[in-house]
Amino acid sequence: MSKEIWIKADGPDDREDRKDLVINALECGITNAIVRPEDKDFSSFGNVKLVYMENGKLSDGSMYVELRKPEDQDKALALAGKCKAVILGTSEWTIIPLENMIAKFHKTDTKVFACASDVEQAKTFLTTLEKGVDGVVVTVGSGDEVRPFANLCMESADVELTPLKVTDIRPIEMGDRVCVDTVTMMHPGEGMLIGSAASCLFLVQSESEDNGYVNARPFRVNAGAVHAYVLGPEGKTSYLAELRSGKTIVLVNAEGKTRLSSVGRCKIEQRPLLILEATDGKGKYTTILQNAETVKLVGPKGAISVSKIKPGDEVYARLEDGGRHFGMKIDETITEI
Fold it and tell me: Rounded to an integer, what distance in angstroms lies between the CA atom of residue 243 and that of residue 263?
């Protein structure tokens, strides 16, 4: 996932309570835990990374700083660029110190983490100053209190979708098409953002609807040709041809709400293709998809099959300025046609 979620499991005096925290965290997808040195055997519960803390220093090179007074903030700020990460703990969080930390640390190689005792607090920390902290350390007293954080491990930043008007759709030659099978069941209206240019990614729906001839496969997105971009975590893109089993991918619905999943497998096969062109009134954008009725784009009126789309129909897309360098957004003048 793009942001790290840890569990602080070294607090309870009872070993069984500490054990319960780690087990529940693992079941929620949290695979980093701060534990006591005597709890090293907790690694047998699953693929979990354990770190130990002594006098504020963690075994992985991170530092833990409790923020109780202004001087503590100065101590934390002084660690920027001098350790792997700084974990900020406090019982009475205010946003201003956190903003100061994010502004200072994002220019260095040191990550900044914030301790959170509930999900809403964690969401606030992950989005403060837009960039947010690099991760959250869950600080709760029991395993049951970890459960609400499960969905947080799947969340990512929402995206803004713009309705584009289709100007043309027509068959082209055969080509290599990528089907992306995920480890997640998707809903109608939900899929992936795909496009021939990073400046415009179209919302391609999963195969989450029966059509009378083929059973629904809600885990699958028939995404498009191998050259196309697909949106990943932190706004980065990959080529469809680069996707591999285990790679994290972003799922998006018609409201722009997102969640993270992983690629289960990709299938690249030669199929008949078509090109769709659309406009927002300013620019012209394209994507290339398989010419099959099960392939659908999502628009203001719902999902519509490429076999039925016609000029004048509206479909959703994510628009952005700038260009891409190895999948990362950069501010430069670039034209992709």
Answer: 7
What is the Cα–Cα distance from 63 to 60, expressed in whole angstroms?
9
Q: Which pLDDT tens digit goes with each residue over 194-235?
A: 999 999 999 999 999 987 778 899 999 999 999 999 999 888
The answer for residues whose C-beta is within 8 angstroms of residue 185's C-beta and 6 or more apart is 218, 219
Distance CA 61, CA 300 (A): 50
CB 215 within 8 A of CB 257: no
β-bridge mates for residue 204, sequence order: 192, 297
**What is the dihedral angle through the alpha carbons of 235, 241, 246, 251, rounded to the nearest 10 degrees?**
40
The pair of three-digit structure tokens given for residue 148, joined into one six-digit string: 């609400």
Please say whether the beta carbons of 125 and 152 come within 8 A: no
Helices 70-77 and 95-105, packing angle to 10 deg: 20
d(CA 201, CA 192): 9
The residue type of 80 is: A
Residue type, 135: G
Spatial distance between the Cα atoms of 248 and 299, rounded to a whole number of angstroms: 25
Question: By the 8 A CB rule, do 85 and 113 touch?
Answer: yes
Contacts of 317 (CB under 8 A, 6+ apart): 161, 162, 164, 193, 195, 200, 201, 202, 203, 278, 285
| Beta carbons within 8 Å of 230's beta carbon, 6+ residues apart | 180, 192, 193, 194, 201, 223, 237, 238, 239, 240, 243, 249
What secondary structure letter does DSSP report for 154? Answer: G
- How many CA within 13 A on the CB side of residue 185? 2
Return d(Cα 128, Cα 136) in angstroms, integer: 12
pLDDT tens, 150-176?
Answer: 877 777 778 999 999 999 999 999 999
H/E stretch holding 181 reads: strand 162-182
Whole-Å CA distances, 54 to 11, 19, 34, 242: 13, 19, 11, 42
Question: What residue spans of the chain are helical by DSSP H?
Answer: 15-27, 70-77, 95-105, 119-127
